[in-house]
Amino acid sequence: MAQTTDSSTDNSGEAGGSLRKGISLLPMIILGVGGAVGTGALFSGIGMAAVAGPAMIVSWVIGCVIYTFIGITYVDMSVRFPEAGGPARYSLYTHGWVANLVNSVGSLVWYLLIPPIEAIATVTALSYFDSGLLNAKGDPTLSGALVALVLLVVYIPVNFYGVKILARINNALGGVKIVLYLLLAVGFILVMGRASNFSAFGGFAPYGIGPIFAAVPIAMFAFGAIRVIPDFAEEAKDGRTLKVGIIYTLIVQFVIYVLFSVALIAGLSWGTLSTKVGEWTALTKVTANPFIALTTNRGVDWLLVVAVIVGILGPGVAGYVYQGAGSRVLLAMARTGYVPKRFKEIHARHKTPALSLIVVALIGAALALLAAPVPRIISLIDDAVVGGYISFGAVPAAMLAVRKQRGESFSVGSTIIAALGFGGASLVVYWSGWPAVPYAVILIAIGSVLLGFAQNFKQLLHSLWYIVWILFLTVMAAIGSVGKGNEISFDLSSVLVAIVSVFVILPWAVHSRLSVDEVEQLEAS
Description:
Blueprint: H1 25-36, H2 39-52, H3 56-80, H4 90-126, H5 142-160, H6 163-192, H7 210-214, H8 216-223, H9 228-231, H10 239-266, H11 290-295, H12 301-336, H13 354-370, H14 381-392, H15 394-405, H16 412-432, H17 436-450, H18 460-479, H19 490-511, H20 516-524
Helix pairs in contact: 1-6, 1-10, 1-12, 2-8, 2-10, 3-8, 3-10, 3-15, 3-16, 4-5, 4-12, 4-13, 4-14, 4-15, 4-17, 4-18, 5-12, 5-13, 6-10, 6-12, 8-14, 8-16, 12-13, 14-16, 14-17, 15-16, 15-19, 16-18, 16-19, 18-19
């Protein structure tokens, strides 16, 4: 496959047409929050509570801090490179074709898995009306998988008819969704809340400090969605829309996630969930939407209605947002030359990447169908997190590299932000543990090989830091306490991952940047 690169300002002619700028600030914020708050808010908390107990609230705070630093680097890079699927192109300009290929495939793993995950989360809520959609283990039956498939197809027209239609639909559904999420969380706290739940069953941190950090990767699935804003950057009205949109999305999703974590612990009823009182680890057996389960037959019918609506609407909105963002990633990969050039074609009337959209939807539909005969697709969340944060980790490195590349002054603040963002992404990948890390790395490796990893060795030296970083995290996941070997304690292995990532890999990444001449050659090729 020939190497090609279309610059962000050259999106017509050979590039297949131009996307339409039509997303203003408020719709962008709603788009970001709509993509962020879905399955993660509803399902992550119960898994985190099983690991860390009530202290999972602290895990959410840690996750927010990590993602804030990553998010600030997205602000910088999205304004510099306002392209569709931009994060799948940033490292192209700093570390070349090979590094960006690996990064793009990591992004694709994230975006191909999330829409079907969200669709099946919606099916889980719909099972309140038809129990035949799930089996006894909480996995989708064939009929449940077919409903998820239909949902993924329904997402297509929402994205196909242009960003103005998308913005109108999202303003309505996304706005209602945010209000209902807040109503559900506050309702849980005020109507069903028990202060004793935070201390009665082994204390606030029943398993100690380590599990608080181990629960963070479960939260990070929910935090990944500010990435959708840079993916729609080419359709934003201006740079301020991107910057402010990312910042407000971070703030709103943080408030919602902390509220939901407090609400879940406060409203927890062991008997309602059919689990042994005080046994936090038993919460892993809860397969239903916990907020629907906890309000069923509790005499709070209005709250049950809100929980069911949120369970259907929340993941549904996130699903179509991610499907649209994923199509922009595939478009970006086509512009770079990783996939056939037909994927960068823009629909003449609606100004959307129609073929990329359909392909992302079809792959999601196939994954939804697979959810019936094999373990539930929500179990793939860990794989999505690893693939996503391997991709996210390249952005802080690219931000420092591009500043060095262009001779810009380095501020202490930007260096610290990049270091904390890169170190945070490293820890999230490591804490995801075994076998999630090797599974995701294998997917990325296979995708990179199939899309032509070996075709451009001239820039391989610029990407070695990235490959070594991924291999280092994989080895640590194998030998660390979160992995198979358990040869290094959690505290020591986490410190080791952070130190090597920040003080060895990140400086190496900045040093490995492309020269100005190499960037010019890349853009001219």
